[in-house]
Amino acid sequence: MDALVKSVTTLAIVNPIAEPRSEGDGTPRHLPAKRPDTLESKTVALYWNGKQNGLDALVRAKETLSKRYNDIRFIDITGALGGTNRYLSPEQLTFLQQEADVALCTTADCGSCCSWLMRDLCELERHGVPAAGLTAAIFTEDANFSTRTFGVPEACPIIVPECFSNKTPEETGDMVDAAMDDIIEALTVDREIQGASAAFEHIVLESAPEILITGSDLMDAFDNMQRHFIGNGWSDGMPLIPPTSAKVDAMIAASGRDGDEIIGHFAPGMGVGTVRKIAANAVMAGCAANTMPVIMAMMECILEPSIGLRTWAMSTGPQAPMVLVSGDIADEIGMNRGICALGPGSISHVNVAIGRALRLIMMNVGHSYPGVSDMDTIGTPNKFSFCVAENEARTPWSPWRVQQGFKAGDSTVSINVPYGMTEFFDFKNSDPQLLVETLGTLAASTCGSPAAGAWLIKKAAPLEQGYPFHGDFANMLLMAPDHAAVFAKAGWTPDDIKYALQKAAKLSFRQIMLNQEYDAFKASHPELLWLLDAPETMMNLYPSPDCFEFFVVGASAGRSQFCFGGTNTVTKKIRR
């Protein structure tokens, strides 16, 4: 009889999923604005956030509303700050509060743009202006999640079938026509006040401190844990290490902090990031306890408002955080500074685990879940893990951390979030001017990314506020030691390379503007309108030499990696 009884083994793991910050614990809750009964004799603000083809939608809406209502008036307004994704300034919100009866807003054509447009809707509602924003169907859950996050869950995303991007004005206009009744209802019928609701529609969040996984033996329980995490949306797609209490406690001890200490609220889901939650995800990534000081410094970096975590965590773009470690801690914990430093392989297992930990923390603490709040069009393998250590022995200048203002005896973590990475190959040149000229052609070839030339369509936003496209993009060259040696032998400093590279990275104004909106250019740089009559004028793709940075890593041969379109780089000291 006993032989018929199946044995059951239980695997007890620490819950790695952070609870979202509740409305009563810091997220302001605002009621929606009172709606007018009709748009007759009303003033409608037509707000554009800079996204391509959004103006076509507003033009059609203006035409249609003018036919339906007598004495209707319009205010055309473009977000004052930002670039491809602009947002309303406090002054503009005050102006609209005084002058507009309602607002129709475009466009939510990517994950982060959707979220920031929902932010503008919530701010308008908070200022007493009923607002509706046009949103592609694929971003519905993103939009609803964002309106809850910004405190006005009743705010009105108007769902259209497809993005306006890459559409003709006629195709965009047809979608606006089909949505017009919904737009009018959203602006003229008072919103029903919503009660508490789940943060996500398709992701299961868990609040219990411990999760019990059963199986016929430990291996079976391990497999069941993988299936459980995949089913709930918590996995990065690769097998996870069970975060047992013993492993998590060891990580917490290595941090030197209390497990319940809250490090911060992590965007986009405003997950409560305790040391324990961070440690659990680090264990799942395969990190050893001695890496915890590096991981805690990474947390400081991504919580720095200027890095704009919400924007790149939710974007349809393939931005991925790149982790750069400088200092002797890299050797202490076994990081690879040389050949195949970005992986794969056993020699890079520490690098890989640290980079993977950051992605899992973004997902399970910050709630940046693919297909829900991370809306990347295609994705990138860089999102699995993207971490290297400086090859200090072959850095011919001051170590990276010293260049960033820290002491030689310190160890630091830096994070830069590029759009992508491409090889810079040059085995031929020993003349630094020729080497930088080759690199300049590569920098110019990245013009199809949102970063190159973006200075022409934007005004700088306050860096410390973390709003989208707030500062100059920083392009990071992971510089092969052989390339660094060419520059150093000729007496070139990193500043010399920056100035020469900015000068070399040029294209014609016409080429730079191929994927940009001319209306945004006109609003941002009226002093440069003469370029409209001289479109073949050669222009700098980047506004400043400081848009380039250099981190020496890797082994022999002249193959560097150009990581383009990154955020401003944030560097923090590692505290042992």
List the helices and strands and how they pair.
Blueprint: E1 9-14, E2 43-48, H1 54-68, E3 73-78, E4 81-82, E5 86-87, H2 90-99, E6 102-108, H3 111-126, E7 131-136, H4 140-149, E8 156-160, H5 169-188, E9 210-215, H6 218-232, H7 245-255, E10 262-266, E11 271-274, H8 275-285, H9 292-303, H10 309-314, E12 322-326, H11 329-332, H12 349-364, E13 387-389, H13 400-403, E14 412-416, E15 420-425, H14 432-445, E16 474-479, H15 481-489, H16 494-504, E17 506-508, H17 509-512, H18 518-524, E18 538-540, E19 548-552, E20 559-566, E21 570-573
Parallel strand pairs: 2-3, 2-6, 6-7, 7-8, 12-13, 16-19
Antiparallel strand pairs: 1-9, 4-5, 10-11, 12-14, 14-21, 15-20, 16-20, 17-18
Helix pairs in contact: 1-5, 3-4, 7-8, 8-12, 14-16
General shape:
flat
The chain-level structural class is alpha/beta
Number of strands: 21
Low-confidence spans: pLDDT under 50, at least 5 residues?
none
Largest sheet: 5 strands, parallel
Q: Order of strands in the sheet with the most strands? A: 3-2-6-7-8
Strand content: 15-25%
What is the average per-residue confidence, as pLDDT, rounded to a whole number? 91
Helical content band: 25-40%
Number of domains: 2
Q: What is the subunit organization of this protein?
A: single chain
- Count of helices? 18
List the main descriptive attributes of the protein structure presented here.
4-stranded mixed sheet, 5-stranded parallel sheet, alpha/beta, 18 helices, 34% helix, Rossmann fold, 576 residues, 2 domains
Describe the structure.
The protein has about 575 residues and is α/β, with parallel strands linked by helices. The protein has two domains: about 25-190, 3-Layer(aba) Sandwich (Rossmann fold); about 210-505 and about 540-575, no CATH class. It is about 35% helix and about 20% strand. It contains 18 helices and 21 strands. The protein has helices at about 55-70, 90-100, 110-125, 140-150, 170-190, 220-230, 245-255, 275-285, 290-305, 310-315, 330, 350-365, 400-405, 430-445, 480-490, 495-505, 510, 520-525; strands spanning about 10-15, 45-50, 75-80, 80, 85, 100-110, 130-135, 155-160, 210-215, 260-265, 270-275, 320-325, 385-390, 410-415, 420-425, 475-480, 505-510, 540, 550, 560-565, 570-575. The strands form seven sheets. A five-stranded parallel beta sheet has the order 3-2-6-7-8, sandwiched between helices. Strands 13-12-14-21 form a four-stranded mixed beta sheet. A four-stranded mixed beta sheet has the order 15-20-16-19. Strand 2, helix 1 (about 55-70) and strand 3 (about 75-80) form a beta-alpha-beta unit. Helix 1 (about 55-70) packs across helix 5. The longest helix is centred in the N-terminal third of the chain and has 20 residues, at about 170-190. The protein starts with 8 loop residues before the first strand and ends with a strand. The mean pLDDT is about 90.
